[in-house]
Amino acid sequence: MNRLRLLVVDDDAGIRDVVRAYATREGFLVSEAADGHDAVDQVDAERPDIVILDLMVPGIDGWELCRRWRASGRLPIIVLTARGAESERILGLGLGADDYMVKPFSPLELMARVRTVLRRTGEERPIGPEYGADTVLDRGALHIDLARRRANCHGRDLALTRRQLDLLARLVRNGDRVSTRLELLEVLGDGQVAATDRAVDQHMVALRRALHIAGSGLHIASVRGLGYRLEGMEAG
Prior knowledge:
This protein is α/β, with parallel strands linked by helices. 41% of the residues lie in helices and 21% in strands.
C-alpha cells in the first residue's frame, strides 16, 4: 500500500518537528518547507496528498499559496496559524482551505482533522475496519467476519462488543505494524476522536482476556508511547 504524503509549511522549526513526529507515527511520508517559495517547489516535485500551511510564512505567504493551489487543482489544505480572528478564518476557508486550526494546537486533534479532510476529499484509505475491502480476516486460529459482526477462535465464538470487534479487526489488519492510539481512538469514536485513552486500554484488557481464554496463541502487546500490536501466529 502506498503511503500518503504530507507537506508541512511553517517557518517555525519546532512546529514542523511536532507535525513531522505525529504524522510519521500515523504512517505519512512527511516533507517540510520553511517558506513559500520552497513550498511551491515541494508541491511541484512531490505532489503531496495534503498540506499543513501557516499563513505567515516568508516569501510567498499562505494566503497566496492557498489561492495558487486551489486555482491549479485539488490539493487538500489545512491552515495552521496563530491568526484566529473570525474574519481571517472565513477568508482562509474562502480562499480554498479545507480546514482552519489556530495555534497553540493539539497534535492529536490536527491528525484527526487531517484524516477527516482526506476522507472528505477522497484521498484517504478508510480508517475503520468496517470500511475495508476485505470483510473476512484471519490470523492463526482467529477468524473475523465483519459482515456478520462475529469473531471465533478454533470454531468457538468470542463474546466481543461491537467496538471490541472493530478494534481487534484493526489490530489484525495492521499485521506486525503498531496500531497507534489515534487510530484506535478513531475506531472507538466512529471516525471522530471522541473516546479516551482509558477506554482504549480497558478494551485492550478485555481483548487480551478473550484471546487468552480462547487459546488463540495471540497476544496484544503494549508499545510504550505509540499504541498496541498483535503478536503471535505469523501475520499474513
